[in-house]
Amino acid sequence: MTTEHHGLTLRPITGRAELDLFNRLPYTLNHELADDLDSGRRRPEWMWVALRGDRLVARAAWWASSENDVPFLLDVLDVDEASDDRVDTLERLLRAALPRVLPPGAVPPDHVHYVPAAWAARPETARPVRERLAALERLGSRLFVERLRLEWLPGTPIAPPSAGLSFRRPRDTQELLGLMARVLEGTLDAHSRENLSRRTPREEAEHHFARELGRYVSPPDWWRIATLSDGAPVGFVTPGRNHYNPVIGYLAVLPEHRGHGYVDDLLAEGTRVLADQGVPRIRAATDVGNAPMADAFRRAGYTDFEHALHMTWT
Q1: CB-based contacts of 301: which residues, under 8 Å, 6+ apart?
Q2: Tens of pLDDT, residues 120-145
Q3: What are phi and psi of 190, to 5 degrees?
Q4: Do 277 and 198 fall into the same domain?
Q5: What's the Cα-to-Cα distance from 186 to each of 174, 176, 252, 278, 287, rounded to whole Å?
Q6: Strand duo 233-241 + 110-115: pairing
Q7: What proportions of the chain, in percent to the nearest 5, are helix, strand and coil?
């Protein structure tokens, strides 16, 4: 699989023994890569390097759930900042890797790149980010959405439950799926809005459940539905653990109950469920453009610790 191009050697790593080589470039995901390899969420043939002699000048890595044979996320794409031809190098690496990582004719999976929260305001972070985006754009990708990544830490106050709302567990998966389909009306989430152009609300709910909530390593009895005194549901929250962190996975208020502050009650309840487990942190994410949800997280004591840029080929 090795390719030589303009003095670059472009190839996948040979195995876990080359992980130290791959990790010579810094990134927020480096500490997860060994476990991902051991668990099958990454494979050596999905982790490509660009070498100039023994020097690592760029790298790319794809991710999938452990049961999938085809990656559905490019989440590592880095280049040595000392290089003079950074955009060209990234483009060459991707052009060499993509035909070998993906099946023939497959649309490349989305790219997610984690950046400092104020990346665009600082030249030292803005230039490297824009260079990565430029390399991807040369291959036909485009920026789809920028998302906030938020974090709650133990000791941060949690608002007490409000009068007038009760919380219970979902009776079954079908009840939750029904509520997920209903809350998609008027959603501000960019991915959901895009998906609804080709799926029904129920199909989108089932897709999200299969890809996200159904893969939690925590029990579904942590999930909560908020109800009024007459038992009518107003929304739901799915606190849980993915393979990396405790998370607020999905939180939404039904369209007919929006504007009454229930989002704060749901977020506090989801945070309380996880805090009662003694977790070291809670992670969450929402689109930069979803101001109501972002404001709710901040009111609850969640802080922006980084952003995620989502690039797509679709």
Answers
A1: 152, 156, 157, 158
A2: 999 989 999 999 999 999 999 999 99
A3: -65, -40
A4: yes
A5: 21, 18, 11, 35, 15
A6: unpaired
A7: 35, 30, 35
C-beta pairs of 123-127 under 8 Å, 24+ apart in sequence? none
Residues 252 and 236: beta-carbon distance below 8 Å:
yes
- The 10s digit of each residue's pLDDT in 237-283 is 999 999 999 999 999 999 999 999 999 999 999 999 999 999 999 99
Pairing of strands 73-79, 110-115: parallel
Location of structure tokens 């996975």: 249
Residues 133 and 170 in one domain: no
User: How far apart are alpha carbons 33 and 69 in whole angstroms?
Assistant: 17
The CATH number of whichever domain residue 72 belongs to comes to: 3.40.630
DSSP collapsed to 3 states, 116-138: CCCHHHCHHHHHHHHHHHHHHHH
3-state secondary structure of 63: strand
Q: CA 305 to CA 50: how far, in whole Å?
A: 30
Same domain, 305 and 200: yes
Report which DSSP code applies to 39: H
At residue 36, φ and ψ (nearest 5 deg) are -65, -40
Taking the model in full, what pTM does it have?
0.91
Asked whether the CA dihedral 91, 96, 102, 104 is positive or negative, the reply is: positive
